[in-house]
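Run folding on both entries below.
>entry_1
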Amino acid sequence: MIRLAWADGADQTIGLPAYETSGAAGADLRANFPDGQAVTLEVGARGLIPTGLRMAIPDGFEVQIRPRSGLALKHGISMVNAPGTIDSDYRGSVGVILINHGTAPFDVTHGMRIAQMVMAPVIQAEFEVVDTLDDTTRGADGFGSTGV
């Protein structure tokens, strides 16, 4: 369970994240501007879009913020850091960094579905420095080495 709280100045009528279908993996997040005004993303521009939410995520989990495929296909709108991560110990306001890869300016309007959030388990690694690593068939071959 994720506990939610409204950020200062948020429009509480916008609604909470919601799964649009019974099989949806991600719950849609909405733009929530304190003044209710739209923001225009010019071609190539990026902006931090507020959701009006703060979250308490259980230990051992993260919330991944992902682009919405419809915005990407129809308008070229994506996220700069896809997926974004909200750590379980973060309690500040959640924002989404959108970028306009499209061919025309794009208005992000108050209440618009801008991204989706997916809760995922996290396993923290242990790190050990060694002198050598085990061999594999691929070895140190890099980008494109396994085919096109």
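>entry_2
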Amino acid sequence: MKYIGVDFGDARVGIASTDLGGCIASAVGIIKVKGLNDAVEKVAAKGKELGGQAFVVGLPKTAFGTEEYRVERTKRFAQQLEEASGLPVHFCDERFSTGEALRYLSEGGVYGSKRKQVLDAVAAQIILQSYVDGLERKV
């Protein structure tokens, strides 16, 4: 199964995709958005373009695992994405994914404006890889 990873944000949405076997996640890029409806429309279209069969959306819980405003907004986005795309949407805890992405980029020597252009896509890749790795453990 081919999954599309999503790091949802109000201004930018990071996108990642797995291989056709659903094992290896790769960063695809970012989508600039203006609001929830715009994000739903553009992400659904990108998922279709990439041949996705399901979405994995990062759930932004706090460091303590609690759910606050961002989680509610993300769940609303995911519900609308599922309706608009007709594809199932799964969630994956995204705590620390941005920090991990920052560390990867720093280790790779990516800084400044280049970092901003890829940060959300790398975070989406980390979220998606975490999800598919969890699936393998369940088998």
